[in-house]
Design a protein that fits this description.
The complex is a heterodimer of chains A (135) and B (393).
Chain A (H helix, E strand, L loop, with lengths): L2 H37 L9 H4 L18 H25 L1 H8 L2 H22 L7
Chain B lengths: L4 H38 L15 H10 L11 H21 L14 H9 L1 H12 L3 H31 L19 H7 L4 H4 L1 H14 L11 H4 L9 H26 L11 H22 L5 H30 L8 H26 L17 H5 L1
Helix pairs in contact in B: 1-11, 1-12, 2-11, 3-4, 3-5, 3-11, 5-6, 6-9, 6-13, 9-11, 9-13, 11-12, 13-14
Chain lengths: 135, 393
């Protein structure tokens, strides 16, 4: 990689880094501003036992906050991992499809069709077994 | 005055980024006014109209109220995580704007992997929502956060697949050369805009529909607002938030439609392309405004879906449609491409002519498959306690 290319690279991502720093700084500044208002006594700060308890409809919360995860969430997470990895493989294929297919012909399309086909069979199986149902 | 180069670059970058971020926050404040007025009209009421002409000063009044309001943190909460969550939710919304072209040369970060950057960065908001819900130490917040994560990751898959369908249509990459030209990959947003001789909305309407549905789920507004279903969960993941932290959460939430519209316009409506007397920046803003209004219209029209309907829609409906779109488009390109792998404008029109009927048929088939009572749950059996008072009378 030549020096100008590297320089260009740092410029592009340097801008994004500066942008990200300000994007964090602005909301943090808003929080700080409100906090300073409370130091100046403009923003009230009178915590009471009721305010400091967690929100509930007139009852005290039964049990801790650690409600158990329903097992459905694990199913969804597994499906997500499977198909999101598929997407990872799809992106480079889609981005170069035109040029690749001009060079290698229909093989490029058929190969991805086979890959996705296997996953689609899995998807239909999951559908039939009821893994895509909620509840 | 001679500044060292890195310092000049840093100062220029700082100024630009600061202006863009503040412009985004200001337009979000104005958008809250617009949304509330428009929703008022949709629901045959007035909306905020007290402060300033047409209630235009309402956002200012809201900001003053929220910033001077007491900020309560429950004892159960995990304080550092509770405080960080709003900032983390706002970050991805702003970062998307950093890579989007507002005009042919109005760029902030001209990334060669623009669309990948957007896909990656937007998934940060899932984490922020879970951190906020978990750190609150409240069951409602926890439930809202869990539902939120399940819903957001489910819709991320069809959204990414729809984007892959768009990438198929983008022209070939320009390789880097020795003279310092860094090359333009077909993942760059400028390249995607440049390829839209015909807006991709016309060429592949199925990808557009899938993307709009998935993106409106990603910003968790009304047809898909299970995250903060007020009638069931208090207010979802931000139940415990008040004062300025709530304001930052709301800022991120109201910025989401603007950011989503910006992405939709860039990917499907030709981004900055337009007719010559009007500058392209104006075209871009006009298109964004139209899309924002359409999204608002959707919000005002549809009632909230149940969580099982939402999940079924993502996994059974949109996922299938996105895969179908991908292969229909890829097959068309296989037959219509020129010998160097590009598409002529004529073949784009031909693809549009094929894709519109395909879209209509597949949407109707999907509605038959999922609609008309097929997603109803079995009749719930009433608990013996439910009729306790009826029997006492």
């Amino acid at each position: 990689m030549s020096e100008t290319l590297l320089d260009d690279y740092f410029r592009r991502y340097g801008l994004i880094a500066i942008f990200a720093a300000i994007a964090v700084g602005v909301p943090t500044g808003m929080l700080m501003m409100s906090w300073m208002l409370s130091l100046m006594g403009i923003r009230p700060h009178v915590p009471t036992a009721v305010k400091r308890s967690i929100y509930e409809c007139g009852f005290e919360t039964l049990g801790g906050r650690w409600t158990r995860f329903n097992f459905r969430y694990y199913g969804i997470a597994l499906l997500f991992v499977v198909f999101d990895v598929e997407v990872v493989f799809l992106f480079p294929w889609a981005a170069t499809f035109g040029a690749m297919s001009a060079e290698f012909g229909a093989f490029v399309l058929l190969e991805m069709a086979a890959f996705i086909g296997i996953l689609v069979v899995g998807w239909l199986h999951a559908w039939r077994k009821g893994s895509l149902e909620w509840g | 005055m001679d500044l060292p180069e890195w310092l000049a670059f840093g100062m220029a970058g700082f100024t630009l980024a600061f202006i863009v971020i503040n412009a985004m926050i200001m337009s979000t404040a104005l958008y809250t006014w617009f949304e509330r007025r428009a929703l008022g009209r949709f629901q045959v009421r007035l909306g905020p109209n007290r402060w300033g002409p047409f209630g235009l000063l309402q956002p200012l009044a809201d900001i003053i109220k929220l910033i001077t309001k007491e900020d309560t943190i429950p004892d159960e909460a995990d304080r550092p995580a509770f405080t960080v969550a709003p900032v983390v939710l706002l970050l991805p919304m702003l970062l998307v704007v950093a890579v989007v072209p507002f005009g042919e040369d109005s760029f902030l970060g001209r990334l060669n992997v623009g669309i990948l950057f957007i896909v990656g960065v937007t998934s940060i908001s899932t984490i922020a929502i879970f951190v906020g819900g978990w750190a609150s130490g409240n069951k409602y917040a926890m439930l809202g956060a869990m539902r939120g994560v399940a819903m957001l990751i489910s819709y991320e898959v069809p959204m990414a697949l729809a984007i892959a369908g768009v990438l198929l249509l983008v022209g070939p990459a320009l390789p880097a050369d020795a003279e310092g030209f860094a090359g333009i990959s077909s993942l760059a947003l400028s390249k995607i805009v440049e390829s839209q001789v015909l807006p991709f909305l016309l060429v592949s309407p199925l990808a557009f529909l899938v993307f709009v549905a998935a993106a409106s789920a990603e910003m968790s507004r009304t047809p898909f607002d299970q995250i903060e279903a007020e009638s069931e969960l208090g207010s979802g993941y931000h139940t415990e938030y008040s004062g300025i932290k709530f304001a930052v959460f709301q800022l991120a939430e109201f910025m989401a439609p603007i950011v989503t519209s910006i992405i939709i316009v860039t990917l499907f409506l030709g981004g900055t392309r337009g007719f010559s007397p009007v500058p392209e920046q104006i075209w871009f803003i006009l298109k964004v405004f139209v899309v924002i209004f359409l999204l608002l219209w959707v919000r005002a029209t549809w009632p909230r879906l149940r969580i099982d309907q939402i999940m079924a829609f993502a996994w059974k409906g949109l996922f299938g449609l996105a895969i179908l779109n991908l292969f229909v488009v890829a097959t068309e390109i296989e037959f219509l491409r020129t010998s160097d792998g590009t598409l002529s404008t004529g073949s784009l029109w031909l693809m549009a002519a094929i894709n519109w009927p395909v879209t209509l048929v597949s949407v109707v088939v999907l509605a038959r498959l999922l609609g008309h009572g097929r997603m109803d749950r079995p009749e719930p059996s009433p608990s013996p306690l439910a009729n306790m008072y009826a029997e006492a009378e």
